[in-house]
Specification:
This protein is α/β, with parallel strands linked by helices and about 325 residues long. Helices cover about 50% and strands about 15% of the residues. It is built from 14 helices and eight strands. Strands 1, 2, 3, 4, 5, 6, 7 and 8 form an eight-stranded mixed sheet that branches. The longest helix has 20 residues, at about 280-300.
């Protein structure tokens, strides 16, 4: 029978939702009646397929930002559960406390032991308060650095999942050294002598993302974004009007294809049609393949070559040929 998975969609997905609902109603109507409308259902399913392809293959930058923020999109703990095993979470920065907006720990990816770090968001109000909407405090960045140093001590590669609108901007975070904590991570991650792979799985906002984003390989999921500022923030600064966020998203060049073209990232990881939330398991398998590919490549390098290539990678960003 009907296998449609209808989800709460975004504004530009409304025509798709309406057609999915109509197909589901037809299946429901004929389930207990001796009526054959197979041809009509097939026609609508073909129309739905074409509509999805047309919609999702021509997304604007702002529409991709909306998909990156979709509340049903998989988060760090979801991917850890789907592609890793034996996850042991580590807590605390040994200075102030434990920030739950950044998750850290040891895990196993296939036959490889790894250290995994990532931003975590919540599904409901209670979880969002627990994880602070994925906005880390300075103790979160200090915890991440502490765990990265453990990875270096034990010779384990680091896998990082980035998904944050930005670092927490509150007074308490500033009092405890937010900018210093992020700056320290940027400096120290250049020198962590083990392979580091970072993947933007949703939002990649400003220094909050970059604070755990210095890596040998940086990948972005197809409908994620990575930017120096949010579209709303950019619009408020440039035009004094947050409603111009769609225009700001376009000029920021924050989508995965734009980032790849400019040499900011190493690979765009494809998502199922409609976004990662449409088929989390398939997305997780794509992530796993990419991580294993780069782990194999990076493990073949000695420490000096690894650090030299990482340094060159970031020094070359922004350079233009005359």
């Amino acid at each position: 029978m009907c296998s449609l998975n209808i989800m709460a969609g975004l504004d530009f997905e409304k025509p798709i939702e309406e057609l999915e609902k109509k197909i589901k109603e037809l299946y429901s109507f004929t389930s207990d009646k001796d009526i054959d409308i197979t041809s009509e259902v097939r026609r609508l399913e073909e129309k739905l397929k074409r509509l999805k392809q047309e919609t999702y293959r021509n997304l604007s930058a702002w529409q991709r930002v909306q998909l990156a923020r979709h509340p049903q999109r998989p988060y760090t703990l979801d991917y850890i559960r789907m592609i890793m095993s034996n996850f042991i979470e580590l807590h605390g920065d040994r200075l102030f406390g434990d920030d739950k907006a950044i998750v850290c720990g040891f895990a196993r990816l296939g036959d490889q032991n790894v250290v995994v770090i990532g931003h975590q968001k919540g599904r409901d109000t209670k979880e969002n308060l627990k994880y602070n909407f994925g906005c880390a405090h300075p103790e979160g960045y200090r915890k991440a650095l502490r765990v990265m140093r453990l990875a270096e001590q034990f010779g384990l590669p680091v896998v990082i999942f980035i998904d944050t609108p930005g670092a927490y901007p509150g007074i308490g975070a500033e009092e405890r050294g937010q900018s210093q904590a992020i700056a320290l991570n940027l400096r120290e991650m250049v020198c962590i002598a083990v392979p580091i792979i970072a993947i933007v799985i949703g939002e990649g906002g400003s220094g909050g993302a970059l604070g755990i984003g210095v890596a040998d390989k940086v990948c972005v999921l197809e409908n994620s974004y990575y930017s120096v500022i949010s579209p709303e923030g950019c619009a408020a600064i440039l035009w004094k009007d947050g409603s111009k966020a769609p225009e700001a998203a376009k000029v920021l060049k924050l989508t995965a294809p734009d980032l790849l073209e400019r040499g900011i990232i190493d690979e765009v990881i494809s998502e199922p049609l409609g976004g990662a939330h449409r088929d989390p398991e398939k997305t997780a398998e794509e992530l796993k393949k990419v991580i294993r590919k780069y782990l194999k490549e990076l493990k073949a390098l000695d420490k000096e070559e690894l650090l030299s290539l990482r340094y060159q990678k970031y020094r070359s960003m922004g350079q233009q040929n005359d």
